[in-house]
């Protein structure tokens, strides 16, 4: 009985922590992306996003964003295909920013690491670039 109480208490603590983290990433004070949703995406912003993608995402998601990076073969579940327009259109820029910052576990992809260091303009640029990978007129497609 005492063990069950501790298990419930621990689960409640984890849930409270997750809620606190997710409520803090709201677009203010460098949280989830706001500029990518509110301001026009510029070529410079996409170039910054591309550089961040290369550094932080290519190993798993691949150069073209199809989820076929060099590390993807060892991952189960497989990394998300960022070129999948049907799926990507279900996500807001805030959703993408939260996944980038907090990791894939919030979307059922537990192996994707969190990137809390990406904030503000960097996060906006990366979100804009990831979004561009699923756009039909994207110059990123092969």
Which labels suit this protein?
142 residues, mainly alpha, Cytochrome Bc1 Complex, Chain D, domain 2, globular
Explained architecture:
The chain has one domain (26-132): Cytochrome Bc1 Complex, Chain D, domain 2. It has 142 residues and is mainly α. It has helices spanning 2-24, 35-38, 43-56, 58-61, 85-88, 93-102, 120-132. The N and C termini lie far apart (59 Å). It is 51% helix and 0% strand. Helix 3 crosses helix 7 and helix 6 packs across helix 7 (120-132). It contains seven helices and no strands. The longest helix is centred in the N-terminal third of the chain and has 23 residues, at 2-24.
In short:
The chain has 7 helices and no strands. The protein is mostly helical and 142 residues long.
List the topology elements:
Blueprint (H helix, E strand, L loop, with lengths): L1 H23 L10 H4 L4 H14 L1 H4 L23 H4 L4 H10 L17 H13 L10
């Amino acid at each position: 009985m005492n063990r069950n109480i501790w298990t419930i208490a621990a689960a409640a603590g984890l849930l409270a922590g997750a809620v606190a983290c997710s409520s803090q990433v709201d677009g203010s004070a460098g949280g989830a992306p706001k500029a990518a949703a509110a301001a026009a995406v510029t070529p410079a912003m996409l170039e910054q996003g591309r550089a961040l993608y290369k550094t932080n995402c290519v190993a798993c998601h691949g150069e073209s964003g199809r989820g076929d990076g060099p590390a993807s073969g060892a991952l189960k579940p497989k990394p998300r295909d960022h070129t999948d327009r049907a799926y990507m259109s279900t996500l807001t820029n805030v959703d993408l920013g939260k996944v980038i910052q907090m990791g894939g576990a919030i979307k059922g992809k537990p192996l994707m690491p969190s990137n809390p260091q990406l904030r503000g303009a960097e996060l906006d640029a990366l979100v804009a670039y990831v979004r561009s990978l699923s756009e039909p007129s994207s110059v990123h497609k092969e």
